[in-house]
Structure prediction request, 414 residues.
Amino acid sequence: MEEKLAVVNAARKTSKKNAAKLHKVDTKRVREWCKQEEKLLAVKNYGRTKRLSGAGRPFKCENMEGELNEWIRDRRERSLRVSRKMIQWKAKELFQNSSSSEKQDLNFSASDGWLSGFLKRNHLSLRRRTSVAQKLPDDVKEKIVRYLLYVEGLRKNCTYRPGSIAAADETPVWIDPVQDKTIEQTGARSVKLFSTGNHKTRFKVMLTALWDGKKLLPFIVMKGKKLPPELLNMKDCIIVMSDNGWMNEETTLDWLNKCWGTFSFGRRLLAWDAFCAHKTSKVKSALRKMQTDVAMIPGGCTSVLQAPDISWNKPFKAAFASLYEEWVETTGCRDSNRTEAGNARPPCKSLLCQWVVKAWNTIGKDLILKSFIVSGLTSDLHGNDDGKLRAVKELEISLEKRDALNHPLTLRMM
Prediction:
């Protein structure tokens, strides 16, 4: 803008031809800028833009861009991935199918420059996935209300001793929890991170805590037939084996006997998800013998109703990943930890179990106590804590008419 005004001032003092020669621009441009002098001064002094309105080459396929934007929105509403290459490919396809009037005098190649402009015009950008989103069911509010009232009814009609309400959840833990981001030189074409090649291998950990803040021993499920000798004398955790490293009916019964405990002075309440192994006849029979009432969290609602999903799992996995990174610094990347072929060995199973114990120990009592309130397991029975419930805050659910509803115990859980 300042250069254009300097050319205009030079033309006023001498002539347009001399100004064009002095500033090495075309004479036609000088005539245009002289006509636009008032607009140039207004934009320079008061405007926030750096060029006049209408500047730049107009894009002639506006209908195609609109269809492309709708295509992107449709895919993202279904949580499907959209990449830059996919946008360029789809843009070419829509352009070829557009009317002949749109394609007149336009050689469209969906270049990187056009793509950058399209993303900017439509307020789009490349984002990293935050989570694998859990889709809430259509009748989610009804299910959540019935669950919360069911838990309230149990607590009103059953006298649970301190520490007799528990929340449990199985969470996967990756052997090689490599992080996605790192600081690197700007413009580097390759960004590498150390890995032992086991970033897709995982095992299961069952985490359980009581409403008084006490944590039960972590229950670890490893893949295999027989417990390795190195794990026989492990302390502060319970380790079992399964064919695929996942929880099943047999391992669930092991958890009930070894972790939950068969002896109790009174009735207990256990909140866990609607996993198929939790609903078998053998598991239900074992729970009845253990005087345990079950609050089965409705399918698809664990993100707002399950205490571990709300509060524990994320910091637990972060602590585990921190221990892994410390191991990489001290042992993992050394030559002594490599095979004859030069590949890095993964952490041994005993070390993984030790990390699980250490990571579980980092979860504080205050966090557990809060998680039981926000999940509705120990919230005030008179509704004073309704505003603290995760489900109520996120989905704007009202429980004010609880007294007018049917008795919670008469409601069948979904």
Summary: The longest helix spans residues 307-332. Residues 62-121 form a domain with the Arc Repressor Mutant, subunit A fold (CATH 1.10.10). Residues 404-414 have pLDDT under 50 and may be disordered.
